[in-house]
Amino acid sequence: xxxxxxxxxxxxxxxxxxxxxxxxxxxxxxxxxxxxxxxxxxxxxxxxxxxxxxxxxxxxxxxxxxxxxxxxxxxxxxxxxxxxxxxxxxxxxxxxxxxxxxxxxxxxxxxxxxxxxxxxxxxxxxxxxxxxxxxxxxxxxxxxxxxxxxxxxxxxxxxxxxxxxxxxxxxxxxxxxxxxxxxxxxxxxxxxxxxxxxxxxxxxxxxxxxxxxxxxxxxxxxxxxxxxxxxxxxxxxxxxxxxxxxxxxxxxxxxxxxxxxxxxxxxxxxxxxxxxxxxxxxxxxxxxxxxxxxxxxxxxxxxxxxxxx
Length: 309
Ligand code: UDP
Ligand code: MG
Description:
Elements lengths: L2 E8 L6 H12 L5 E8 L6 H11 L4 E7 L5 H11 L4 E4 L11 H10 L4 E6 L7 H17 L8 E8 H9 L7 H7 L4 E6 L13 H15 L2 H31 L6 H33 L7 E4 L1
Parallel strand pairs: 1-2, 1-4, 2-3, 5-7
Antiparallel strand pairs: 3-8, 4-6, 5-6
Helix pairs in contact: 5-8, 9-10
The chain binds uridine-5'-diphosphate and magnesium ion.
Uridine-5'-diphosphate (UDP) binds next to strand 1 and helix 3.
C-alpha cells in the first residue's frame, strides 16, 4: 500500500485543531493509503502543543508525529521541516484551519495515481471574506512577479498541494535560507495539475497575516526569484542621465543666448530631490539583495527542533 504524509504547520491554532483533526481523520479514513501525520508546532504561544499531544494520545492507532520548534520560525520553515521528516510516497501540505478542505484529498490522490501527475495544487477562484484592498494588492503582486521572474505562480494558489516523493526530494535539495515556497514549487518544475475550489474562511482563530507581513512576504518573493529590481535601477540611471544631458545642453545654450541671471531655484530643488530619491531607492533595492545574500552566507539552519513527540 502506498503511503501518504500529511504535513500541518501550526502556529497558535488552539481554537481550530480538534475540529480540524476530526474532519481530517474522517476524510482520511476513506482513502486507500496508509497515512502519517506530521504536525509542526511553530513556537505557538497558546496550548497548541498540548492539544497536539492530546490528539496523539487519543489516536494511538494512527501515526502522528509532532515536531516542536524552539520558537516561531514561520510557516516556510514549518513546511521545510515537515517535508524533510516525511517518508510517504505522496506528501500533502495543509493548513490547520480547514481553509484547505480535506475532502479534496481523495481527488488529489486519484490524479496522482491514475493521471500520473507529480503534483496536484489548489487555487481559490475567489477571495471571498478578504478585505478588497488586500485582494487588489495580491493580484498586482502575482502579475508583477510573473512578469519579471522566470517562474509562473498561479494567482490565488495556495500551499495546499500534494506532491510525489521525487518532487519533495528536489524541493528539499534547494538549500536556500529564504524560502518562498510558492516560487520553489514552480521553479522545480514537474507536471502539476491545478484544482480550483471556492475560498472558505478559517473555522476558528484568526489569520497570522497582517497587511504588512504580506507586503514583506511579497518583497521576499520578488527578491528570492528575480534580480529585475536591480536592473530597474540601471534603467532609471540611464533615463535620468539622458535627461540630464539634454537639460545641460539646454541650460548652456540658454545662458549663452540670454546671459545667466541667478535664478532657477525651484528647478534645481526639484532635480536634486528627484535624483536623491532615485538614489536612495536604488540603494534600498541594492541593500535588500545584499541583506539576503548576507543571511544566505551565514548558513543558519531554517529552524531548530526543541523536541519531538
Ligand atoms: N503558520 C505557521 N507559522 C506562522 C504562521 C502561520 O506555522 O508563523 C501556519 C498556521 O498555523 C496555519 C497556516 O500556517 O496552519 C496558514 O496560516 P494562516 O491561516 O494564518 O494564513 P492564511 O490562511 O490566512 O493565509
Ligand atoms: Mg488560513
